[in-house]
Amino acid sequence: MSHKLQRILHGSLCQHYDLFQEVHLLFARNGIKVLVPDLSKIVGEIHGFMHLQNDISWNPRDHN
Predict the structure, then answer these.
(1) What global pTM score does this model have?
(2) Which of 2, 24, 43, 52 gives 20 to 30 Å between its CA and that of 63?
(3) Is the pLDDT of residue 43 over 60?
(4) Which residues pair with 46 in a beta bridge?
(5) Residue 47 backbone class (left: φ over 0; alpha: ψ -120 to 50; beta: rest)
(6) How far is CA 25 from CA 45, 58, 59, 64, in A?
């Protein structure tokens, strides 16, 4: 499927992770590509920011 529309979801993953997942799926079903975030498993939290498994900026060795 060709993605004509591309969007970025922005907001608090910490507060609204379930809603992010719901909107991400809704967009995908309607041919809208979500560029970021690439929703995956939450692997950590620092100072109220969630880090996802597919987040290349997250290195768990740096946060032990």
Answers:
(1) 0.70
(2) 24
(3) yes
(4) 49
(5) left
(6) 23, 24, 27, 33
